[in-house]
Amino acid sequence: MPDVTRRIAIGVDVGGSGVKCGAVDIATGQLVGARRRVATPQPSTPAAVVGVIARLVERIGREAGAPGAPVGVGVPSVVIEGVTKTAANIDPTWIGFDAGRALGASIGRPVVVLNDADAAGIAEMRFGAGVGKAGTVFVLTLGTGLGSALFINGVLVPNTELGHMEIRGRDAERRSAAVARIRRGLSWKAWSGDLDEHLHAIDRLFWPTLIILGGGVSKNADRFLPYLTVRPPVVPAQLRNDAGIVGAAMAAEEAAAP
Ligand code: BGC
Predict the structure, then answer these.
(1) Which ligand 1 atom is the nearest neighbour of the CA of 86?
(2) Are residues 90 and 175 in the same domain?
(3) Mutate to test the pocket of ligand 1, among 75, 115, 124, 159 (most ligand atoms within 8 A of CB)
(4) For ligand 1, what atom is nearest to the CA of residue 116?
């Protein structure tokens, strides 16, 4: 018999290379059933990506026995009231797109849209390295781009976009994101110097209490954390790859709560 008391929401994480989707048990932050991943359509136009999301959500909802569950979608963009305002690692036609409305029409119920790093940060603060952490906390996601989520005593300040701080005359994420290490063929040590420079720049402006580093590289934290010299403590995220899905689901559940 299905557990009818369990609250489930569906989270989607849109990235430059893949769109990932899963059903999430809101109380535990655990995925219910399998996570599904589809390659991001190329070009990653809004219409193409919305279609992929709608199919994934329908399938995941069915598989989890929760076809009407709230839906949250994290995208690599500034999001204001469902409208995507920027497009750094996704097709430029996302700029000014009413993603909330398009997804809601396609899926047939309200959809919460938020920045992907904000989504990952929400999950990390609730279930990972940020649990119980007060003060000014950053969750930075290091992937194709560098995403940032800022929390003040646990409350999210959305859309901070610290990947686009200017360092040495260009976007900081061009050197400090995880793919920058691979693209430039750098050792972990050499790349950690670039990341460290970015973290020092953040510290000079925000003086955070704690910095949590997420994204795929967090599983290799021992290869670069020892080289960092920045003042605040820096710790790896605990939730790994599913943080974006879990946080998007949590945002949807919160918005749907009576
Ligand atoms: C985008 C952010 C996003 C980050 C991680 C950046 O290039 O501007 O919105 O959070 O990449 O995907």
Answers:
(1) 8
(2) no
(3) 115
(4) 10
Same domain, 233 and 246: no
By alpha-carbon position, which residue is closest to atom 8 of ligand 1?
88
Per the structure, how many domains does the chain have? Answer: 2
* Whether pTM exceeds 0.90: yes
pLDDT tens over the chain, length 258 residues: 455 567 999 999 999 899 999 999 999 999 999 999 999 999 999 999 999 999 999 999 999 999 999 999 999 999 999 999 999 999 999 999 999 999 999 999 999 999 999 999 999 999 999 999 999 999 999 999 999 999 999 999 999 999 999 999 999 999 999 999 999 999 999 999 999 999 999 999 999 999 999 998 999 999 999 999 999 999 999 998 899 999 999 999 999 987
Same domain as 87, residue 152: no
Domain residue limits at 32: 8-118+242-256
Query: From the CA of 258, how far away is ligand 1's center (Å)?
Result: 31
Among 46, 74, 61, 64, smallest CA distance to 141 is for 74
The reply to whether 17 and 110 lie within a common domain is: yes
* Cα distance between residue 206 and residue 202, in whole Å: 6
Cα–Cα nearest to 127, from 252, 1, 250, 255: 250
Looking up residue 203, the CATH number of its domain turns out to be 3.30.420.40
Distance CA 84, CA 245 (A): 18
